């Protein structure tokens, strides 16, 4: 499995300026190559290399390996779309490989190529990032964000094979509750939704001002909201995977691909519905589960929240409210999200519709 380790560079004023100049020079070269590729309709890296290699080296004063990397950046862009000229941002990220970047983990420094020459720069990283960096693989991207430099290094981790399981921990993903499992534990989304509501109000005020300062603040607030939601998803996914591993169970999730296209909501709920980061949470659960050797199974989400686990009755009226499930046929009732998670768990186990009578009958 390939994961990304992010580290923050602790640059001096001179090093900051040198890296900024490097980004501008390399992306300027990328735009020049892109223009030549577009004019001559030459999009293969091999052909562009023979056409522009010496020109790029002399024009932009780049080393041989950097020219190779920037040619690769341009041709990768045209692999996505050859219908329009590719334009690269002045401070867009650039790729480094082991010939132009070396790591010294014990000293927490890197030796990195720059236009002005090699730089030795200290970096900061958490324990998990340092552990990941022991398994470095392939390229790293130099990224400039909010006035700071970061390296995103690709790392390759081994996946232990998942063991055989006889039970699944069902997990129901939602909005009011970000997640609920079949053991009855819920992970409230109130804090995330409250933050998003406050940000939406502030966003409306800032957008109405339409000044440079308001636009800068909009970007800053947007990133802050995204970081908080990502942190919450990391915490929830870690807890779910740990619970499944400790109890020797697999994890059952709904396959929610395309769910936004299938569901219509009232106008007042659209913002909340479209800011629902269920796919990110699912991805976090899946990759953490793979690293822990926990089996993850996706099931059909149809009627998981409307099916009575006691009698099998499927009815929209079984959900009189968001939080309550009450079967109109047998009277079985309980927390709606927990019951849905139980249905998901049983559906993963039997590979068929999620009705499998709950011991004890109607509740």
The best one-word shape is elongated
Low-confidence stretches: 352-357, 359-363
Mean pLDDT: 87
- How many DSSP helices? 10
Could you estimate the helical fraction of the residues in percent? 40-55%
The number of distinct β-strands equals 14
Strand content: 15-25%
- Rounded to an integer, what's the Rg over CA atoms? 26 Å
In the sheet with the most strands, the strands line up as: 2-6-7-1-5-4-3
What order do the helices and strands follow? EHHHEEEEHEEEEEHHEHHHEEEH
Characterize the largest beta sheet: strand count, sense, and whether it forms a barrel: 7 strands, antiparallel
The total domain count is 2
Distance between the termini: 44 Å
Structural class: alpha+beta
Keywords:
7-stranded antiparallel sheet; about 375 residues; alpha+beta; about 20% strand
Structural summary, described in words:
By secondary structure, the protein is an alpha+beta fold. The chain has two domains: 2-156, no CATH class; 163-363, no CATH class. Helices cover 45% and strands 20% of the residues. It has helices spanning 13-40, 45-60, 64-80, 127-133, 190-209, 212-246, 259-262, 270-274, 278-292, 336-350; strands at residues 2-9, 94-96, 101-104, 109-112, 119-124, 136-145, 148-156, 168-173, 177-181, 186-188, 250-254, 296-299, 324-326, 333-335. The strands form three sheets. A seven-stranded antiparallel β-sheet has the order 2-6-7-1-5-4-3. A five-stranded mixed β-sheet has the order 10-9-8-11-12. Strand 9 and strand 10 (186-188) form a beta hairpin. Helix 1 crosses helix 3 (64-80) and helix 5 (190-209) runs antiparallel to helix 6. The two termini are 44 Å apart. 30% of the residues are buried. Mean pLDDT is 87; it is low at 352-357 and 359-363.
């Amino acid at each position: 499995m390939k994961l990304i380790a992010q580290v923050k560079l602790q640059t001096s004023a001179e090093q900051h300026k040198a890296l900024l100049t490097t980004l501008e020079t390399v992306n300027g070269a990328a735009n020049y190559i892109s223009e030549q590729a577009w004019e001559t309709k030459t999009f293969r890296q091999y052909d562009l290399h023979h056409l522009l290699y010496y020109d790029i080296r002399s024009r932009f004063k780049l080393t041989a390996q950097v020219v190779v990397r920037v040619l690769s950046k341009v041709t990768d862009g045209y692999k996505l779309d050859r219908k329009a000229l590719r334009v690269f941002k002045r401070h867009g990220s650039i790729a480094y490989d082991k010939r132009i970047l070396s790591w010294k983990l014990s000293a927490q420094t890197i030796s990195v190529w720059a236009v002005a020459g090699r730089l030795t720069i200290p970096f900061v990283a958490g324990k998990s990032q340092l552990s990941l960096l022991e398994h470095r693989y392939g390229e790293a991207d130099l990224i400039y964000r909010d006035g700071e430099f970061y390296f995103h290094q690709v790392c390759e981790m081994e996946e232990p094979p998942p063991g055989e399981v006889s039970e699944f921990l069902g997990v129901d993903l939602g909005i009011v509750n970000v997640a609920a499992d079949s053991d009855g534990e819920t992970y409230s989304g109130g804090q995330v939704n409250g933050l998003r509501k406050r940000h939406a109000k502030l966003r409306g005020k800032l957008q109405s001002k339409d000044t440079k300062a308001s636009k800068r603040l909009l970007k800053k607030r947007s990133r802050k909201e995204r970081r908080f939601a990502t942190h919450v998803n990391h915490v929830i996914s870690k807890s779910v995977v740990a619970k499944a591993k400790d109890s020797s169970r697999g994890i059952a999730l709904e396959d929610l691909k395309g769910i936004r296209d299938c569901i219509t909501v009232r106008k007042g709920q659209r913002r909340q519905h479209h800011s629902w980061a269920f796919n990110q949470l699912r991805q976090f659960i899946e990759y953490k589960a793979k690293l822990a050797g926990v089996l993850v199974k996706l099931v059909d989400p149809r009627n998981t929240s409307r099916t009575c686990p006691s009698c099998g009755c499927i009815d929209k009226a079984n959900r009189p409210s968001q939080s309550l499930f009450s079967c109109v046929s047998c009277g079985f009732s309980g927390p709606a999200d927990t019951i849905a998670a139980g249905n998901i768990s049983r559906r993963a186990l039997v590979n068929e519709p999620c009705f499998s009578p709950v011991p004890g009958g109607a509740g």
